Amino acid sequence: MIKKILIVEDEEDIIELLSAIFDDLGGYGVLCARDGEEALRIAQLNNPDIILLDILLPKLNGYQVCKLIKSDPAMSHTKILMLSGMAQNSDQLKAREVGADGYIAKPFSSSTLVKKVEELLRSN
Question: Is the domain defined by 3-122 classed in CATH 3.40.50.2300?
Answer without folding.
Answer: yes
